[in-house]
């Protein structure tokens, strides 16, 4: 297990990252801890939002460093994909995204739906939820609306 004590970020008292292997799966687990001073109830929401913003930036920085250390050029939008997806699946999504874009050219709605489902099936259960935020960030529209499949 590795424990990193980082310099406290703005409005925090301490920042700690713990990295350890999973005891049951072939993966590494990371735990991010951010501690603040006690706050009055009326300042709780603002403090929580600030800490969550710091957490997101920290997670992104740590993961970007890890990906870079193994030679992976990880796209910024990759952080919008479901966080528990394996790296291979995240990278595969970006490989098939142009194919998803071309599904729009199919005239028949049923054919568009079938092709879309086939393309994202590797994402497992609830695949739309795992990729739609990344798609929307690029195309400025949800994938179902883009493919005109909202009514299906």
Characterization of the model:
- By secondary structure, the protein is an alpha+beta fold.
- It has 2 domains: 73 residues, no CATH class; 70 residues, no CATH class.
- The protein contains 5 helices and 3 strands; from the N terminus they run βββααααα.
- The protein has a 3-stranded antiparallel beta sheet with strand order 1-2-3, with helices on one face.
- Strand 2 and strand 3 form a beta hairpin.
- The longest helix is centred in the middle third of the chain and has 26 residues.
- The model has no long low-confidence stretch (mean pLDDT 94).
Number of domains: 2
| Overall pLDDT level | 94
Q: How many strand elements?
A: 3
Major sheet strand order: 1-2-3
Order of helices and strands: EEEHHHHH
Report the total helices: 5
Largest sheet: 3 strands, antiparallel
Give the termini separation. Answer: 48 Å
- The geometry reads as globular
Features:
2 domains; alpha+beta; 3-stranded antiparallel β-sheet; 152 residues
Outline:
The protein has 152 residues and is an alpha+beta fold.
Secondary structure layout plus pairing:
Layout: E1 2-6, E2 14-21, E3 28-35, H1 44-69, H2 87-103, H3 109-120, H4 127-139, H5 143-146
Antiparallel strand pairs: 1-2, 2-3
Helix pairs in contact: 2-3
């Amino acid at each position: 297990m590795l424990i990193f004590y980082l310099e406290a970020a703005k409005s925090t008292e301490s920042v700690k990252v713990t990295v350890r292997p999973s005891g049951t799966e072939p993966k590494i687990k990371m735990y991010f801890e951010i501690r603040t001073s006690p706050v009055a109830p009326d300042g709780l929401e603002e403090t929580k939002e600030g800490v969550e913003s710091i957490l997101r930036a920290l997670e992104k920085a740590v993961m970007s460093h890890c990906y870079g250390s193994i030679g992976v050029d990880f796209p910024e939008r990759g952080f919008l994909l479901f966080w528990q997806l394996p790296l291979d699946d995240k990278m595969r999504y970006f490989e098939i995204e142009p194919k998803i874009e071309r599904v729009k050219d199919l005239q028949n709605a049923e054919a568009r739906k079938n092709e879309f489902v086939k393309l994202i099936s590797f994402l497992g259960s609830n695949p739309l939820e795992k990729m739609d935020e990344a798609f929307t960030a690029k195309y400025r529209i949800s994938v179902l609306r883009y493919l005109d499949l909202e009514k299906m």
